[in-house]
Amino acid sequence: MPRSQRRAALVHPDARDYDLLDVLHALADRTRMTIVRTLRTDPERACGTFPVDVAPSTLTHHFRVLREAGLIHQREEGNRRWTTLRLADLDGRFPGLLDSILAADKRAAP
Amino acid sequence: MPRSQRRAALVHPDARDYDLLDVLHALADRTRMTIVRTLRTDPERACGTFPVDVAPSTLTHHFRVLREAGLIHQREEGNRRWTTLRLADLDGRFPGLLDSILAADKRAAP
């Protein structure tokens, strides 16, 4: 399979398969928390536009952790990757949890 | 300093120094989540009485992670170590957060 096609195969867990411990682990990192906070107010963002200061390969890793925990959805369009927050899926499984954590983060790091 | 005295020097962070990411990391583990859930209903427990199936050295590690994140308080009495949940401290810093996470965990693993 050509590399370009493999790159497009992004795996997203089904909303029924959420693991709370994976969600907590994904959020227990400043860069990933910032990505999620940004998406909570901005519905969809291109990958290079998040207010985080890390190397591209590190950012790719953080997006993968968030994606595999079910926190974000990513899609390829042309040569850009677009990211959205899976808020409805999360709230369906764990009502109010994400906003409770984001409110705590806002108290900690406004 | 004799070993017995060193063992008694348990470090507990001040409630003002809570780090949300440390709290989330501490809870992102099944054994540690079980310890916290148990303490949420049982105010104080001796260390060997938690419903977890791990080696004593592993349990010591988990207690240390919880203690350093400010989730639990431990005190020595005779040759037993007693553990309590720092719910008031946590709720003072992050109102409602712990119960929101515990409610999500109950939905995930009743």
TrEMBL record, chains A, B:
Keywords: DNA-binding, Transcription, Transcription regulation
Domain HTH arsR-type: 12-105
Pfam families referenced in this protein's UniProt entry, alphabetically: HTH_20
Classification via SMART domains: HTH_ARSR
Keyword presence, Transcription: yes
InterPro entries in alphabetical order: ArsR-like_HTH, HTH_ArsR_DNA-bd_dom, HTH_MetalResp_TranReg, WH-like_DNA-bd_sf, WH_DNA-bd_sf
SUPFAM superfamilies referenced in this protein's UniProt entry, alphabetically: Winged helix' DNA-binding domain
Name assigned to this protein: Helix-turn-helix transcriptional regulator
